[in-house]
Amino acid sequence: MSPEQPPAAPYTALELLVHGVGGTTPQGMLNDPRIVRITGDETAAVYRRVDDADAEARPDDYRGRPVPEAYVWCNLTSGNGARALWLLLLPFMVVNLAHWMRPTVPDSRTRTVRLHGLLVRLVSLTLTVLLVAAACEVALDLVAWQCAGTPECAAENSWLGFLSPTGSDDGWWSQPGRRLALASLAPAALTGLLWYLSHRTWSAYESQRPMSEGGAPRDDSDDNGRPALGRPGFWYGRRLVARLRAAHTAAGLLTVAAGVGVSAARHDREDGGPAALETLGLLLTATLVAGAVVVIWVVCHRGRSERHLDRQLDATLVRWLPLGSLALLALTLLYAGWSRPDWQSGHRLPGGGTFGGIALVQGLLVIALGVVAHLLYRTHPDTRTAMRGLAGPAVAMLACALGGVMSGGVAQRVADWLDGTEKPIDGPPVFLTWQASVIPPLIVVLLALFGWLARRTGQLRRAETDKVGLDYPSEPQDAERTQRIARTRAMAALTDRAPRIIGIISTVTLLLGAVALVGAMTTDEVPGDAAQGTYAFVEGAAETAQALGSWLIGVGFILLVTWGRRAYRDPSARRTIGILWDVGTFWPRAAHPFAPPCYAERAVPDLTWRMATWTGTTGGRLVISGHSQGSVLAAAAVWQLTPSVRKRVALLTYGSPLERLYGRWFPAHFGSAALSSLRREVDCWRNLHRATDPIGGPVRLPGDCGPPVDREALKDPLSYGRTARHPLPEPILGHSGYQADPAFAEERRRLLARLRPDVPGPRPEGGPPESAAPEPVAAPDSDSVAAPDSVAMPDGGVLQPGPGADGEPQGSSGRSSA
């Protein structure tokens, strides 16, 4: 069916439902197995019930109730089993979040804001180099250099036999340079895979152009005072992602070339090789340095462009940078493969200090990022901002730690797998061994934090126990029921402790990383005869920590891979991982091009187009109803509308993390100033929340220009015990089932009444005019469900006709959708 609708009567209303994280089915959202797709494709689409497909042509049939319509976007994130492998890109996703966590600042601090983004992009670049360097460590150093160069190790691993030097029967591949050249194909292929995934998702996500006429701000409108999410180019990052993809791909290929070429050049320079090879090695080394400088310049030169739609791509230099790096890599492989009969591999591959150098650079960049974030926070302090503006540096530090753990885990496991001979290989670089040794202390800190959380939960539970009785004063108390409600509230309140936990973990990680770096730098300087007394005890403790940390880091990586494989096969596990991406990939790829793609760059334009075209062609009223993460998408889409469209649109959010999570962690885009601006612009906005909800919460906006946005916290459960109205025990719904509460239908009715053009008179505080339309009914569901066929009971409850699409009784499901 075409999205263009026939003109409708002024009282026609549409409820556009947007589900939360974890996804759902359109049948479940609309409470009807018979649905029809109105517009969209298999990835994201708008659906209606079959009976409502031509609702605009029958306006009299919909007097007093809205037409339900469902926007389903879950396939943008977790719909494909292969996307479970994105779990391995977790560090890239986390560091991309750090870009968006800067504090709120006035427009006069644009240079400092640009510096903040620049530092995050540099940290992201080091993560790419770290990942490729880890692949080089495994393929080049452990396999091709150490194991293949050791006859005992090569004999133990027969698949390496053709690479091993065996005296008079040496094969063509037995020379170290040729072995390195062959092994370099693995990290080069990894870099190519990352480029391919980024390019494919770039074509599907970043190439979706936002609406620029009729509904959203035009390219060069005067939007200097608008929040960032309302700017025309915010959801169009095509140029920046293409630029960063070229730079990071080139950085990966140059890292592989350096791993092969520097070793060969060092041999030619120190062992008196042919003058021509020595000169060529110097030229290649200089070219690698020049390429690295160009990559850094490309990353630093340009950031995001949000005030207009930037439809152009960068110059030829940027677009051809990966191809030039690939040509340099090919030339380096030919240089390394030149015959050098006297070249023998032994011990570790030269360049083992690379990982320590990367860690040092990352630590300095994170510290500099912390200084910049603190300066930004001082210009506009807000007590609700997480970690006083230092959330970005803390998350960037965690991304670096994740990258280090994954890199070290791969290297340690491969080394243990290869090292099964009487003459063991040297193994990974010293820094990776020291890095493993700090894992046990970090585990101790985590256990202490969990103990503190358990203690804090007990305190909150005891405090909530007294409040439960006050919320249900007319019902007989049951100790077990009271404890269950109080425990749920206490567990939900732990979400607000996340900033303190992240701050402690990131600080400890930074300090332990410094200890590992110092330990790796001083290991070779310890006197050989200092093996008694205190030093012997310290050395033994360090060796024990290194062994335990190596085992833990390897097990952690294996669990990560196993979880990804299970998610590829198991739809339920895939749904769980999909929730992680739903939360982490809302933001555009502004720092790392290899992060999982931003689904909002497709979802927000979809919602904007639908709202603008429907209100423009029908002249009707529209309530966009968002649950959980759907409320964030709904708010972002409303920001993109022009005032002429926005005056026909109302916003209803429930279980919403807009202020509790996004406002605290991303204050520049969802802080109090941005949400207050949205409140003034949209005018009709109501938010529902519960004390038992661990994700959603109030938006904390006063009613200085109309009714307050937040309704008083809803009771959960609706009934404490068995009553005449609720003869069966009511579940504790927490984050789900908001539409089962009669307050949902009441607030929707009030929003539609405020939008009615035929209702004169002032808007009373906290309620609609008396002549408002009759209250429609709602159906409960864990995400977003409308139930036009449900029956309103005289006591305010809702009687459902039958089970939902997933087979669970409607209104009684305690399943959480986030």
Key words describing this protein structure:
818 residues; mainly alpha; 7-stranded mixed beta sheet; two-stranded antiparallel ribbon; 25 helices; 9 strands; globular; disordered C terminus
Please render the helix and strand layout as text.
Layout: E1 13-18, H1 26-30, E2 35-40, E3 45-49, E4 67-72, H2 90-99, H3 110-147, H4 151-156, H5 176-183, H6 185-206, H7 238-270, H8 275-301, H9 316-319, H10 321-336, H11 354-379, H12 391-418, H13 430-437, H14 439-471, H15 479-493, H16 498-522, H17 533-569, H18 571-584, H19 600-618, E5 621-627, H20 629-639, H21 643-646, E6 649-654, H22 658-665, H23 667-670, H24 672-682, E7 685-688, H25 742-755, E8 791-792, E9 798-799
Parallel strand pairs: 1-4, 1-5, 5-6, 6-7
Antiparallel strand pairs: 2-3, 3-4, 8-9
Helix pairs in contact: 2-3, 2-12, 3-5, 3-6, 3-7, 3-11, 3-12, 5-10, 6-7, 7-8, 7-10, 8-10, 11-12, 11-16, 12-13, 12-16, 12-17, 13-16, 13-17, 14-15, 14-16, 17-18, 19-20
Q: Mean pLDDT, nearest integer?
A: 80
Q: How many DSSP-defined strands?
A: 9
Helix content: 40-55%
The biggest sheet amounts to: 7 strands, mixed
- What is the topology, as strand order, of the major beta sheet? 2-3-4-1-5-6-7
